[in-house]
Specification:
The protein has one domain. The chain contains seven helices and no strands. Helix 2 packs across helix 6, helix 3 crosses helix 6 and helix 6 runs antiparallel to helix 7. It is mainly alpha-helical. The two termini are 25 Å apart.
Length: 170
Amino acid sequence: MNVQVARAWRDLVNSLGSWQLWVYVGLQDIRLRYRRSALGPFWITLSLAVTIVGVGVFYSGIFQSEVHVYLPYFATGFIVWAYITGLIIDGCLVFIQDGSYIRQLPAPLLTYLFKATWRAIIIFAHNFVIFVAVALYFRIWAGWAYLEAALGFVLLTLNGMWMALFLGTG
């Protein structure tokens, strides 16, 4: 096996093994980012909810579609799109923003990628509340499709991680 490939596998295994580090530091990043606000990270959720409702109602009128049909699709797409852009933007800056940690902390490099991904997942979880509210309001139950969506979320996250690694090192 190539030396670089072996080093990459070792970094991956060590990063997964140090999950407590990237989970804690990711949570700490979110706490520090919103430490002075009353709602914390739910400011993002509130602004996203207002945008979804405003634009969704407006577009349903433009496209001459019923709000109860259009808004759930729009909300789902917008929340997932916010997650994808969060993964990409954080991925582009992951090694730049964490440069001081990288120089001071003897941790595997993929730890910082996992931290950025964890942070994006936490923000997605906050924004997912919007989908739950829309689904409850419009009485939507997709049944087994929710399991397919969970699998799609895992695949989307894995794809976003390799893109973040590619963009972050480029």
